[in-house]
Each structure stands twice: as structure tokens, then as C-alpha cells.
Amino acid sequence: MSELFDRVDALASRSPLPPPVERKRLRQAHGFTLDEVAEALMVRRATVSAWESGKTEPRPPERDAYARMLTKLAELYPADPNSAAPAEDTAVPESFANALAPAPEARTLSTGPASEAAAMTDSEKTQPCPAANSAAPAAAPRPARSARSASTSRRPGARKAAPANSPAGGTDPRFEYGPLAVVDVDVHGQVLAYCVGGLVLEVPAKSLPSLVEWTLKEAKLGQPKLSGPGKDADPLLVLTEAALERYGLPVALTDEERLAGRIPEGHKVVKQLARGEWRLTQRGFGPWARIYRPAQGSERNCVQLCIPSWHALDSRHWGQAGQLPPAELARVLGVYASRVMTPRGSTAVTGLELMTALHPPTRASEPDADGRRHSEHNPGSLGKDPVDCAPCEAPDGHPLLKDLPRFHVRGPGEKLFEEAYDWARPMTDAECTLRYLVGIDVNMAFAAGANGLVVGLGAPTHVKVPVFDPKLPGSWLVDLSHVDLSRVKVGKEWVELDGSLLPSPFTPKGERPQGPAWYATPTVAYAVELGYDVTPIEAYVRYDNGRYLDAWYNRLRDAYLATMADLGVHADLSPADFLAAMDGYKERDPQLAVTVSAIKATVKGGLGKLRERPRGDGWKPGQPWRALSRPTWRPDIRAAVISRTRINLHRKIVKHAAFTGQYPVAILSDCVVYAANGTSPLDFLPYRDGKPLPGAFKLGINPGLVKHEGTQSVLWGEEVRERFNAPELNLARYIKDGTVTDVDNGE
């Protein structure tokens, strides 16, 4: 009998619980997911779901902990709608917060039959979304969807943020959940889509074709167009390894598939797509696959896939982003998408696509007599048709050069060769008495070179015996060998310099030209600026021109500065504070540091794509290759940007030398090395009262300003050069960490 009494006492002492519907409301009101509650109570996700649906009841000891949680939540979120909601700064009891602290971003929306949506309470349908971090704002409060949506809530202490995908601060309802999602499968087999701002969608799709359908019809993913005549960005799905397995795709590509850049056309998933009347682009199903149906009117039916385990995210630019957990990867890509654009492929591809997105090739015309609009050329764009480059601008193997002898090597008088610096010289005796070598690096140097640059928009015009015009973009055959760096104009005054310690501004290796050579307009204009006359022999100029890259520069500059500001490096810092802020900035938020790396790679890669070379496909010299069919295949624009970037750097070097008597020891692209008596750039940069020399090097985060690249000892530099028996070894290549693995060959 005593045993029976014990059972009755235990039953009577059970912790009371609210009804199942209230349990669910309280959990969702605080922003907890089923997984978070299950993990805290050490039960399965399905168990918590069953408690909330009333299918089962919790038993001790989990029941007591579950009741404690619900009691605390009931205090924060009273059931009576007339009761005052807790203030934003309402504190959660510490013991409770420690036991069940949700990820700040975690919000789950499930999709399913519409009948389930009807069962939701009004409070479930109108709960506001929690704020995301400052770098990836959350979506605004949303109305109930036709498909079932679990409620979302704002946690105490969180604040709503303006969405990143709407320039006006309001959410475009078509893209309510952001530009992209990382698709994963949890331990219970549920497919989840992790979106920006911490939103998590439950995905009902059982196959890849149905996943594409769901993305276009239910997921509300995408991004508004960046320019009036442009197109909205297609939704991007990033598939984790678990998602690949779920949808029948290989986790990794074979060596043969990797070389081909795609899985075979006979793969079962490719056949599934074909049966569903979905198409793939010419590149097939690879790391950056595009799945589409032909557009119906203005409606686009296209989804972009990114597959990290197939090396879609190049570690040189994205670091270890491909190994991040889904929510963190969604954040990294989401910040990039909101500030640059939704990735369309590699950072190089995206950099090029950004140019087109900001200057679409066509626009709608004014209505004709019948009120109809037609597609017409969009002024300021490169148009929709490719144009031939000038022969001097064509890279080796181009169809324009097919009549040249097979082993002919073009010299400077036949080929435009505007490239970044790779120059070094032996140190002087005076420099060897100093203690350190200090490297400074120009921030976003090539972006700064593009800013305000006038480039050709159309085809070149061949001009014989032209008169040089610094405002006219083009390629000029001219002899600049007479320019003597020992005596040049700096501003309006002639100055005497040690020309032997300076690189020539006209060649990437810093060698003085030996005769006529082809140069882009900024290079020739700099010769005039230095005080020397120029007499071009011939030219290919572009009368149709404009500042095509300005919007591109502004977008990438703003993305870079905003992300660096999130990392604690602001544009208004004093020189000393800037150097301190840059020290270890990547460790403050490694995810955002990855985004910074990707933004910088977008600049260089996008410009490189302007002169993309053949990539296999059985190509032979003299034959066209795929990139030539793009209107954005423009080697002249690439050359002009590189020319201006190199000239900008040389101008600063000359001003610095004229003012301080100091000369660079080595230059590699946008890194310059000086000998100094201290370890900091402030030990040799001529700051006075916190102000730099006008027109010379200035410390700061803005594009075109410089940061500290690295410091090594002069003894290190001399030892390295002796070890490799290379007096002109480019120390700028190794100044960052001092590691030299092998003698460089300049490639």
C-alpha cells in the first residue's frame, strides 16, 4: 500500500504545465527553436515537438526543468493580450539565461500545408523578428504566409534593424528573407535553409527540382536590382555536404569531374532536372550551377547554386568559409551580398557581373506612337555586343594576331604591356646603416585607380600621327626614353632627384624605355606631368568614353569601409590610432575578415576578367575563346586601370623623395619598402602635426591611402639576398612575415 501512496504523491507533486498551444507560444515568443530547447533539456527535437502538439506529456526529471523554463517565459510574455509586454531591456534571470541561451540570430520558419497556418494564433502571426547583428540586418516584421510559418519573436534586449536588401530601409516583399540561404540537414533529417539575419526556414523539398521550385515560389529569396534598367538578383542556395547527400549529389568531385568543372550530363540529378523542364547553362552542373527555365515575360525563373565542397569558395579569397557552420556561412555570404552583390560565381566573376549590374547594356525606350517600349542601348554602358580590341591590346594568341609567325615574340613597339610593379634594387651604403625595412601597402589600390578614370565604351579608332590628348582614353605608340627622373616637375617646380634609385614609371620592371612603346593614356599623361614633351607615332583612341567604373568603385569602396568599420577600423582615425586599430583586426571577427578578403579579391579579380585568357576547351592560338564573346572583355580598360594605379604610386614616391630624400628599396604591385630607423611607417612618413605631405603617402583605411604591411630588419634583407645570391631580390614579396621559401622569378 505504501508503494501505491508513493506513486500518488509523485503524481500530485508533478510540476504543472500550461496547455500545449501555450507551450509553443511561449517558446516562439522568446525566439527559441525546437533544437535549442531539446539540447538544453537533453531530449530529442521530436520529443519537444510532441509536447507542444499534445501527443505526449513530459515526465520527470525533464518535466521539472521544462516547467521552470515555461514559468519564466510566462513572466516575460503574459498570455493576456491586454497585459503590458516586457520592456526591451527586461532582464532574463541569469540561471535561466545560462541554461537556455539562444543564438542571437536563431529563428525558425517551417513550411507545410496551409491548414496548419490556419491553426496559428494571431500572436504567432504578428510576432516581430529579432534583430541580426549590425553587419547582416534581419528582415522586418512580416504578415502570415499561405504556407505554415512558425512565429518569430524579438528577444529582450534586441533591436530591429533596417533590412540590408532595400535601399529605402523597407523590405521588398519578394525578397523578404534576404538574398541567399545555406541549405543543410539537421541530425533529425530535417532540411533547413539558413538565411541572413539568423532566419532558418524548414524546407519541405524532397528532391533538387522540388528544392528549386520551393525556392522560387516559397522561399522569398533574392535581391533587388542595383540599377534602374537592371535585373533582380536570382536567389542563391549554398548546399552543404549533408544537403548534397540528401539530394543525391556527390559530396566531392572526382579528379575528372574537377577538371571538367561539372558532373556528367548523365548524372541522375541532372536527368531529374531535365524531366522537370529545368535547364543548365553551358557550364553545366558545377560548383556554381545555374538552374533555370526560360523567362516568362518579366518573371525570371532561375536559381544559383554554390557548392563549397566542390571548391566553389576559393580559399585564397574566402579563407575557410567553406568549412563554417551553416548559420555562420550565411552571415559571411550575406554581408558580402548586401554590400557588394549576391555572388554569381568566383570573386572575379562577381566583380565583372557587378560592372554589368550597375551599367546594364540595355534599357526600355520611351513609348513609341503605339505606346510600346523597346529595348535600346543604355548610355554609359558597354552595350550588349562585344567589340574588337586594337591589335596592340590583344594578348598573345588572339585571332587578330593569327597571321603572325608561330614563334614571333612581340616587343614593346607591338604590344601594350601595362602591368603592376615588380621592381627592386640593391640597398645603398647609407641604407645599410639603418636598422629596419618597413613595408607600406596601398589600400584597394586598383579600386582607387579606377575611381574617376575615363575609359573607352566602344571600339577603337586608329589615328596616324595623333596629337596627344590626356582626356582621350586609348593606346599610344610613343617614345618616352627621354624622360629623365633626375630632373622632373613636382607640381609646378622642377626638382633634382637621384634617378638611379627610382623605378621608371613606364615599365613594370622599372627599367628605362629603350624606344617607342605602347602605353595607355594615364602613362603618357604622367610623362607630360613630369615636364616632358611627347610625340605619339600612332594611336588607337576611343571617342565614345565615360567614367564607366565610378559606380563600381563606389560600391566596393563603401563595402570595404563599412566592413572595416565593423572590425573597429574607421576612416577618421589619427595615424597612430589607425595603426593600432589595424593591429590584429582580423581576430576581432574572423568571419567579417573573410568578407574583407573577398571584397578586395572582387576588385582585382573583376579587373582581371576584363582580359580573361583561354581556359582549356581545346583552344589553339589564333582561335577565338569563350570570353571574347562578352562585351565586358575589354583589355584596354584593364590596362588603363593598371596604368593609372602604377602612376598614382610613382607620383607619391617622387613626392616623398623630393621632400625627404628617401627612396624605395623594393616595390611589388601596391607594396613599397623603405629603409628606416624604426619599425613603424611613422618613423619615415613625413607627418607634421598629424598632417601628411600633400599628395604623398598618407596612413588611413580609405582606398588609395596606406597601411603597415610589415617590418623586417635590414640584416634580414641582406642575409636573404646573399643566401639566394640575388642582390635585387624583391624584398616586398616577403616583408609581411619574413618567410622566404625560394628565390622569386617575378611571376
Report a brief summary of the structure.
By secondary structure, the protein is an alpha+beta fold.
General description of the model:
About 11% of the residues have low confidence. This protein is α+β, with helices and mostly antiparallel strands. It starts with a helix and ends in a 24-residue tail after the last helix. Helix 14 crosses helix 22. The longest helix has 26 residues. 31% of the residues lie in helices and 14% in strands. It is built from 24 helices and 23 strands. Strands 1-4-3-2-5-8-7-6 form an eight-stranded mixed β-sheet. The protein has a five-stranded antiparallel β-sheet with strand order 11-21-22-12-23.
Strand content: 5-15%
Portion in helices: 25-40%
Would you count the extended β strands for me?
23
Supply Rg.
Answer: 31 Å
Assembly context of the chains: single chain
Our measurement of the CA-to-CA distance between the termini, rounded to an integer number of angstroms, reads 91 Å
Largest sheet: 8 strands, mixed
Number of helices: 24
Shape: globular
Which structural class do the helices and strands define?
A: alpha+beta
Average pLDDT taken over every residue: 86
What is the spatial order of strands in the main beta sheet? 1-4-3-2-5-8-7-6
- Uncertain runs with pLDDT below 50, 5 residues or more? 83-106, 112-170
Structural key phrases:
747 residues; five-stranded antiparallel beta sheet; globular
